[in-house]
Structures are given as C-alpha cells and as structure tokens.
Amino acid sequence: MTDKRVRVRYAPSPTGGLHLGGVRTVLFNYLFAKKHGGDFILRTEDTDQTRFVPGAEEYIFQCLEWCGLVPDESAKHGGPFGPYRQSERKPLYNQYAEQLVAAGQAYYAFDTPQELEAKRAAMPNFQYNQQSRQSMRNSLTLDAATVAQLISEGHPHVVRIKMPEQETITFTDMIRGEVSFDTTQVDDKVLLKADGMPTYHLAVVVDDHLMQISHAFRGEEWLPSAPVHILLWKYLFGLDQMPQWAHLPLILKPDGNGKLSKRDGDRLGFPVFAMDWTDPKTNTTTIGFRERGFLPQAFVNVLAMLGWNDGTDKEIFTIEELIASFSMERVHKGGAKFDFEKAKWFNQEWIKQTDATTLLPEVKKVLGDSAANADETFIAQVINLVKDRCVLLNDFAQQAGYFFSDPTKVDTDAIKPKWDEKKTLFFTELIRTYETEQFWQAADLEKAFKEIAAVNELKPGELMLPFRIMLVGGKFGPGVFDIAALIGKDATIARIKHTLSLLQ
Fold first, then answer.
1. What is the mean pLDDT of residues 333-358?
2. Any idea what DSSP says for residue 403?
3. What dihedral angle (degrees, nearest 10) is formed by the CA atoms of 150, 152, 157, 161?
C-alpha cells in the first residue's frame, strides 16, 4: 500500500454488452476501494470512435447500478477529476505525445493505411518495430525539413513510441509478483492516432496520472502492453508516480480451454452479459443474468468467487462481507472456469435466504397480471412457501402461479394409470368433508384427508400425488395441505371437481 489515498478505476469501452469478466473487474476494484476507504472511478474510454455504439455507456451504468457497484466518480455522477469520457479529454493528450517526440522517445509516422497493408501482405507477421521502423516513412528516416513540411501540409500521421532495444523492463504485480519483459519483443505502438485521438496506451497513462489513480487492476490480456505503459510512466511522470498494478486472471470456458466469450454462452445456453443487451445495428438481443432470473447479490457473489476466496470454505458472502474479507493477495494467478450450474446454486441459496419483502417486487414482475391485484401480504406468504424450490426468479412463475389462478393445464396423464373407482369415491367424499370444514388450516385439512383414506382402506401416499396435480396442475410445489390452506376452500374444491370431470 502507498501512502496516498486509494483511488481505483474501471475504464470500459462503450462498444456493446457488459461481459461478466468486466463486471468482475469492477467488483474487485470496488471491493478494494471500499476496504481501504478509497474511491471507485468509472472512466469511459471512447477514443475509438469507429467502435462506439450508441446507448452502450448508459447500459454500463445500468448494469453497475443493478449490481450495486455504483461509482463515486464518472461521467454520470460527476467528480473533481472530470471530464470522465476520454473523447471529452482529447485536447489533453497531444501535449504529452509532443513531449515524447521532442525527447526522442516517440516519433511521427506518415505511412498510409495502404502502405502498411502492403507491408503486411509482403511480410507475414509484420510488426512496426526496432527492425522495420528504419524502412518506413517516419520522422526517424525523413529529414527534419520534410517532416515539418508534411505536418504543415496536414499530412495524416500518427505518433508511435520508440521502443528501446534489448532492455529488460520489470515491475511487481500484486498478484503475480515480479514480471519482466524484453523490449525487443514489443512493437512501436501507436500513441496518438491520425484523428488526434489517443490510443488506449497513451490515454490510460495520462488519465491515471491526472486522476491520481493509486492502483490499477485489469485483465491479464493487458500484460503484453505493460512494458509500453511502464515506459510512458517513466518518460512522462516518473516511475514513482505509477499506480500499483494487478493483472486479474481470465474467466475461462467451462472446460477450461480458453477465455469465456459470448459465443460460448450462446452455444452452451447461458448468459455472459450482466443484463440484456440489444445491438442497435442488428436489433438482436442477447439475454443477461438479470433477465435470466438472477438476483444481483447472487451475481456479485458468483463473480467474487471466480478467482478469489477468503482462505476458508465460505462461499455465500454479502457485499459487506466481501468488502471486509477482500484482498488482492487472495486473488488466484490461474484462470477461473465458469460453471453455470454452480452459478445457479448461488442464486438458489440467495433466494432461500432473502426475505419475502425483498423478493416481492421481482416476484410480482415474474407473475405479471395474475398477481397484479393480489394482496402483498398474501404474495409474501406464497413466496415464503415456495422460495426454497426456486433456482431462478423466473421459477416463481411455475412454483407460485397456481396460487393466483387455476392451472391452465392439469397433468391427468400422470394420474390415470393408477386411477380407479375407489379413488373417485374418496375425492367425492373429500369434497363433502371439505365443504363443511370450519377450520381451514393445513393441519386440519391433512387430518380429515387421512381419516377418509383410512375409512376407505386407502393409503394416503397413493392419494397425495393426484391431490397435488388437482391443485397445481403437475408434480411440483410445496406441501399439498399448505397449498390448499393458502388458496382457500372454494379454489381447492373447485379444482378437485374440475379434475374429477376430466377423469370421467
């Protein structure tokens, strides 16, 4: 830990749906900041205007709000270090690029896209680097007068970092320990594009400095860029100003073979985005965890356990417990396999432990019109009765729907094979008894049921399944007498009569 105030950031590009790996990066940043009394900043990296997607930035904010991971500073929330969109910070970057060129640490490159494409076609695996830069059109190979003329004439050009040869660059990663790079293996990355926009490499360093970022946590796919960023810190601000870094492990496919992608989710039938994302270009919607029926607390809990644990067997954590327990030292170096069945288990556990009042708004959405006019106390009773049977919030449609309206379909095929006249007589007598029942409580209903079964020399076990199917339509639901008690006398008797008519 440094002495300066903890300030961390998440810097997404607004290009589409928010992948669960991105939300986990947010989560680890957020937990670290809150653990140390610091600030969590969201900075929108929209410098690549060709990939910008309308609505994507607001979608990111909505996802984080749903997860309860609200930034302290952002384009939406404001703050003392704005603007928080890189496109609005464009004038800031040119001076740093020019400073690097003046110091001989970067150079102007005038190669056209066509010339670069021709090089790539002629040379497989072409890289603009220490070897090739001397054969290209740049300020290292052109004389100063030509360079000045090209710039004054407005000739399109970029600024590239001049990577030193045969240097070893080392830094200490908070997760991986000491990491080293050979600069000869790194190409001369573009820092400033022809449209005056910075690339990620320049912008991330300048913005982290100006926003006083103390710790930078990002995915391990950014490790190869680390030597470029370290050199920029060294050249522009001094390495003593550089944030502490941690490169987070990848979230892997269920079989562990490579990084989890949206395509994998589509193929295997599970979401990878936090919330539904509708692509404005194709108008296609990709389902998210929220719409699939996940509680935000469960989704956050799932992500926390992908690549981190507190050193115990504990798996269910509230956000407060995560903040108290979190440390970067407990983040794993290796990638974490995503297991959707395990994710659903987390959600089921959260549904079980969440009180009915908290679940009520979401359950009402799931039930729709059937429960629109129902008393909320009654809905809460239903939730308490069935929630242990729900893995996803959408399961409440099946597990609770029959409390609010008669089943649309009754599975008589499950009753017919063992149905006989004795059972018809039993349920006919049960109707008469229930019609005169004064105390409509589960225990009283069960007592009467078993007494009639005994008189008719029938085993209660043979009668319970038909009774359940009469009330709910299928082989599911909580205790059948609890169901009867809640739906009331009239509905119970009407459903028995309806099924008996279907069995004639």
1. 97
2. T
3. 100
- Decide which of 248, 272, 295 is a domain's last residue: 248
281 and 315 inside one domain: yes
Question: pLDDT band at residue 197, thresholds of 50, 70 and 90?
Answer: very high
Sign of CA dihedral 147, 151, 153, 158: positive
Question: What is the count of structural domains for the chain?
Answer: 3
* Euclidean distance between the first and the last CA atom of the chain, given in angstroms as a whole number: 77
Please say if 475 is a catalytic residue: no
Total-model pTM: 0.93
**Separation of alpha carbons 239 and 188, rounded Å:** 20
When pLDDT is averaged across residues 109-123 and rounded to a whole number, the result is: 95
Question: Catalytic one among 90, 193, 262, 364?
Answer: 262
Residue 437 · residue 448 · CB < 8 Å: yes
Kindly state whether residues 164 and 212 are assigned to the same domain.
Answer: yes
Of 354, 386, 418, which residue is a domain's last?
Answer: 354
- Give 3-state DSSP helix, strand, coil % of the chain, rounded to 5: 50, 10, 35
Contact 278, 285 (CB under 8 A): yes
Task: Render pLDDT for 86-101 as a digit per residue (tens, 0 to 9).
Answer: 999 999 999 999 999 9
Residues 49 and 146 occupy one common structural domain: no
* Residue 136: inside a domain: yes
Q: Are residues 235 and 211 located together in one domain of the fold?
A: yes
Rounded Cα distance between 444 and 450, Å, is 10
Q: How far apart are CA 74 and CA 83, in angstroms?
A: 8
pLDDT for the residue numbered 3: 63
Query: What is the full DSSP assignment across 67-127?
Result: HT---SBBTTTB-TT---BGGGGHHHHHHHHHHHHHTTSEEEE---HHHHHHHHHHSTT--
Query: What does DSSP say about strands 106-109 and 158-161: parallel, antiparallel, or unpaired?
Result: antiparallel
Q: How far is CA 90 from the centre of its chain?
A: 30
Give me the CATH number covering residue 416. Answer: 1.10.10.350
Residues 319 and 451 reside in one and the same domain: no
* Pair of tokens at residue 207: 């913005």
Structure-token match 């129902």, residue found:
374
The boundaries of the domain holding residue 149 are 89-248
* Helices first, then strands: H and E counts in the chain: 20, 13
Residue 161 and residue 235 in one domain? yes
